[in-house]
Amino acid sequence: MEVTAEKMQSWLNRLIGPEKENLGLVKYLERIPRVKDLTQVPSGTVVLVRGDLDAKPGAKVGEGDIRLRSMRETLQIGRDRRWIQVIFGHIGRDPQLSLEKVGKRISEIMGCPVQLIADWFDPETDTIRPEVKAALAEAKPGDLILLENTRKYDMERILWKAKAADIPKLANRLAKIANEFASKIGKVYVHEAFSAGSLDTSSVVVPAAMDRAALGEYAYGEFSGPLTTCLGAQLVISSGLKIDKLDDLEAMISRGKIRWVFTAGSLAVGLIKAAAQLEGKDFCIGVAEDPAHSDKPYFIPQDRIEQAKRILSEGRGKGIQFVMPVDFVLQDGRVSTTIGPGEQQLDVGPATSDLFEKKIGEFIEWAKGLKEPAVAFHNGVFGKFEEPQFEEGTRRFVKQLKRLKDAGVQVFVGGGEGGKALEKYGDPSWGIYNFTAGGTVLNALGSDPVPFLAALEMVAK
């Protein structure tokens, strides 16, 4: 069915507008089919596969291609059912990056040729180029076709900065793009890009024109297995540069399972300032509260401090322990218990590391009283760890993940920088599970819906 501008406007209202809601991970999984469920899709059908293509393949299979290998089961199902699969997605944020090496690695993984179409979209007219139709006309059941980096074209990025007020003026163009995919490629869609949590057109707009849509087997397994377990975490360790992680923390706390929260980074300084104000005092957080830095990702506006107050008050009322830094490594390398005007904290100090290690021991003792294995979710790093002078807090804490696991705690590491730190300072085996996509994991556990799950659910409905 062709997508009208009115239908697209309604679709966008549920994605980024006033009708947006988070149904919760369990409901999404109940309502969205898996690729295994598409048993009635006949041989020869063209199936669009939104792939997890953002990878840097090394010299051989198994190096730098974990995301590509995650697609193997879904792509093999399609080949076994003799579908013509058209894989598309992005690599990095640079429009000039190519999927040529990715295509060759998928070919090695799947043991079959993969045809790359380098120029498949006309940005002047927002139409699919004739080269795609020609390739499909020659394709045989079971073939794999790869479209070049979707972010090569600005159409992929239309919703990145869009607000609800922009929906009416975007609806016509996005409806046309969705209809192009449906009319010139196919009307069956599979999302097998667990890490693709952005508002990319390929992930959240194209499905609007599909007759059927499903979740890939790897993505389904991540959501239904380890992520569902993380919903019951008693311990959350969260850090990062952006204060909007407060939204995710608040959502996680609201489930009623969390009893311990360890924080660092902007999240921590926001909570520290809030704690001081709850006591009738104040705590300077330096450039993070300076309006001159309001355009920086580390800036914390007063409304976020008010949110942090609410989180602390309600959390403490539920018996949650908040473990926050007591000293900091400042931008010039000094260790200080305070942050002065014009200063910025870039790591936790040694006293904080001592405190964290002590409190991890207390958590381990507390967890011994549980009737089931304790669950810990770790996301982020404690400072600007890519620079040696700001890595010590992260380096020391990574060892606590092994300590937790050795004590029988199920440790889940939320991808991204947390996963990189675990590899750099420890061993991936120190976590019972290491996610490959930090942003998607936070969305699934936090306040906002995972965009592609919201889109797939709308197709199913």
Could you give the topology of this structure?
Blueprint: H1 5-15, H2 25-31, E1 46-51, H3 66-69, H4 72-80, E2 84-88, H5 100-110, E3 114-117, E4 121-122, E5 127-128, H6 130-138, E6 144-147, H7 167-184, E7 188-192, H8 201-204, E8 212-215, H9 217-230, E9 235-238, H10 245-254, E10 260-263, H11 265-278, H12 302-317, E11 321-323, E12 328-330, E13 335-336, E14 345-348, H13 350-367, E15 375-379, H14 392-406, E16 410-413, H15 416-425, E17 433-434, H16 438-445, H17 451-460
Parallel strand pairs: 1-2, 1-7, 2-6, 3-6, 7-8, 9-10, 9-15, 10-11, 15-16, 16-17
Antiparallel strand pairs: 4-5, 12-13, 12-14
Task: Explain how this protein is built.
The protein has 461 residues and is of the alpha/beta class. 41% of the residues lie in helices and 14% in strands. It has helices at residues 5-15, 25-31, 66-69, 72-80, 100-110, 130-138, 167-184, 201-204, 217-230, 245-254, 265-278, 302-317, 350-367, 392-406, 416-425, 438-445, 451-460; strands at 46-51, 84-88, 114-117, 121-122, 127-128, 144-147, 188-192, 212-215, 235-238, 260-263, 321-323, 328-330, 335-336, 345-348, 375-379, 410-413, 433-434. The chain has a 6-stranded parallel sheet, with helices on both faces. A 6-stranded parallel sheet has the order 11-10-9-15-16-17, with helices on both faces. Strand 7 (188-192), helix 8 and strand 8 (212-215) form a beta-alpha-beta unit. Helix 11 (265-278) crosses helix 12, helix 13 (350-367) runs parallel beside helix 14 and helix 14 crosses helix 15. The radius of gyration is 23 Å and the shape is globular. It starts with a helix and ends with a helix.
